[in-house]
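STRUCTURE:
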């Protein structure tokens, strides 16, 4: 039987937490490589070798930013009182925004390829495994607005849609879940600690107590969460309209590669077979 440590060894990734010099150096390197990627996209002239190189650069940047972002989130989860965590997460968000802007420009280059050139690209041995993704990207890219408009959207996303996760992290860092152990001692657990114990404790009474306290704590914050989510929904629906989606479900269905008929069939199956929780 495998035994796993109950705490993360984050220093094995970047020593020093969110203030890690290695993490800072990593972000500086990403910024430099992002500038190079931007220059290469601007200079792209429909050569297959250049296109393949751009795909490689884009993939490398996405992986590097995802690693940095995951680390920052884990470090913040491990220490919700870390006041520097929002700063470093903000820096990473800016880099994601820049990558998104350059990525949109790259996608537009893909859209602008004539059918013959695009077909030649898809026939390349290295790109055959990516045919589905590239075709899908080209199709979605046709919805893009002008480069200036898409750049403005990406800039606004940093402090709007994409900033929600930081708002959520800030809110839950101020929350605690009270738990009384068998000795009658009451301690205040962080959200992460409460979640771990609620999902892993063998005693059902402990899980029940924590769940009740959890519901009470989050219900207390419900008006804030509801207000933010409603505004995020309005923001997303406005973007959908500008990108010529005709129904609010069209974009999420497209994202999940699902038809509306499939979704409706799934819900109909649930509706036909579910049982009421309370009977009179």
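SEQUENCE:
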């Amino acid at each position: 039987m495998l035994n796993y440590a109950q705490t993360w060894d984050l220093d094995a990734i970047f020593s020093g937490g969110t203030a890690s010099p290695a993490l800072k150096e990593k972000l500086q390197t990403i910024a430099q490589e992002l500038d190079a990627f931007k220059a290469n996209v601007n200079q792209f002239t429909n050569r297959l070798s250049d296109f393949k190189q751009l795909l490689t650069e884009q993939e490398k940047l996405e992986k590097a930013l995802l690693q940095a972002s995951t680390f920052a989130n884990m470090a913040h989860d491990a220490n919700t009182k870390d006041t520097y965590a929002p700063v470093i997460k903000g820096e990473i968000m800016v880099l994601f925004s820049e990558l998104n802007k350059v990525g949109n420009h790259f996608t537009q280059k893909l859209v602008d390829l004539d059918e013959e050139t695009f077909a030649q690209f898809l026939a390349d041995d290295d790109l055959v495994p990516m045919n589905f993704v590239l075709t899908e990207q080209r199709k979605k890219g046709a919805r893009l607005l002008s480069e200036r408009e898409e750049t403005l959207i990406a800039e606004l996303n940093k402090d709007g849609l994409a900033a929600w996760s930081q708002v959520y992290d800030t809110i839950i860092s101020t929350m605690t879940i009270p738990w009384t152990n068998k000795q009658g001692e009451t301690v205040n657990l962080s959200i992460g600690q409460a979640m771990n114990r609620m999902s892993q404790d063998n005693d059902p009474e402990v899980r029940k107590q924590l769940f009740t306290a959890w519901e009470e704590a989050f219900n207390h914050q419900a008006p804030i969460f509801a207000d933010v989510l409603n505004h995020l929904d309005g923001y997303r629906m406005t973007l959908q309209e500008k990108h010529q989606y005709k129904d609010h479900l069209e974009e999420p269905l497209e994202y999940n590669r699902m038809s509306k008929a499939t979704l409706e069939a799934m819900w109909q199956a649930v509706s036909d077979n579910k049982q009421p929780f309370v009977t009179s």
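REMARK: The chain has a mean pLDDT of 90.
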